[in-house]
Amino acid sequence: MAIVTKDFHVWFEVINKKGQKLTFFNNETPEHNFPIAFEVNFSDSPTPSVNTVTLYNLSKSHSDFFEKDEKVYLYANWGPHKKLISEGFITKFDVAQHDGTTDSKVINFTEGTDYNNVKANSLKVEKKKEVKRSKLVEATKPGHYENKIVNHHRKQVWVPAKKVSHRVKTRETKVIRSNKVYRKGTSYEAVIKGIAAQCGIKISKLQLHKNPVLKHAYTAKGKPLTLIKQLVVHTESSFTYVKGRLEIVDPKSEKRTWIDIDDQDLVQPPSTNSADSTKKKTWEITLPFVPEMVINTGINMKSHYLKGRFYVKSGQHTSDGENPQTQCSLLPM
């Protein structure tokens, strides 16, 4: 497809908890020659990737701007138009290192939102229940005369007023918290959507390979993300993060994006692990930076070394500030 490799731009945006934004920009011109190195990973793993950005020769005010949990966006492209390659939240940043001529600061961020910390308690729902209760009621028994035998003679004796307690049966409405139960016959898609909505988990795309129904009533008990992962297995679908967004997709569906790759695009010939079986053989390719490359991207290989239709299983966007590349692991369709 002859990837155009000129006029490389990088944008790194950081937004603090007050909503203030700081943008680092490099287009390799004298006015904006500010090298930004990065390493962005993507795979079909259900765990968010940890990515890194390295900035050089920061002023003290810029260096002090970084704090844990700040929102970050990383854009890169050949040309002036932004293309998002990753977003997430800062998890760690190192103290600036000095090699004698250059100061460098490494920022680590977790792609997307890590929902592993969403507690199981968030799945509980409140219900009203009528319960039987009893309570002691205090009353005053008025004074009165009673017939009593005194010295072998029956006579009227005055009994003074007194306070007495007796138990009274009552009913009251009690609010209880319990795990939500999905009825037999509910579709897996409905259960996944229900758990995600209840716990604030944002699924940007939900496309299941199969959508069976529950054979028995299902109680949503446990950590929400773990439950969703377990349900996805039964639908034969893929749970992954794409550019910081959580997606559940059908790995066998027609790919949303197709890219043609020929010998002009390859940095080096494709390689493979000879230990793999023929059907599951994984091919590794290295290209100049391709911002559109994500999980499940369709690849039309038209190289002298490799031909056919493949899809991206995992990969990495990298740049040392000058040499941006994309490496991918491909599986045959």
Structure description:
- The chain contains three helices and 23 strands.
- Strand 22 (307-319) and strand 23 form a beta hairpin.
- It has four domains: 8-114, Pnp Oxidase, Chain A (Roll); 124-176, no CATH class; 180-249, Phage tail protein beta-alpha-beta fold (3-Layer(bab) Sandwich); 258-332, Bacteriophage T4, Gp27, baseplate hub, domain 3 (Elongation Factor Tu (Ef-tu), domain 3), CATH 2.40.30.
- With 333 residues, the chain is mainly beta.
How are the secondary structure elements laid out?
Blueprint: E1 8-15, E2 21-26, E3 36-43, E4 50-56, H1 60-63, E5 71-78, E6 84-93, E7 97-98, E8 103-111, E9 124-141, E10 144-150, E11 153-159, E12 162-179, E13 181-182, H2 188-199, E14 205-206, E15 218-219, H3 224-234, E16 238-242, E17 245-249, E18 258-261, E19 271-272, E20 283-288, E21 298-302, E22 307-319, E23 325-332
Parallel strand pairs: 14-17, 18-21
Antiparallel strand pairs: 1-2, 1-5, 3-4, 3-22, 4-8, 5-6, 6-8, 7-8, 9-12, 10-11, 13-15, 16-17, 19-20, 20-23, 21-22, 22-23
Short overview:
The chain is mainly beta and 333 residues long. It contains 3 helices and 23 strands. It folds into 4 domains: 8-114, Roll (Pnp Oxidase, Chain A), CATH 2.30.110; 124-176, no CATH class; 180-249, 3-Layer(bab) Sandwich (Phage tail protein beta-alpha-beta fold); 258-332, Elongation Factor Tu (Ef-tu), domain 3 (Beta Barrel).
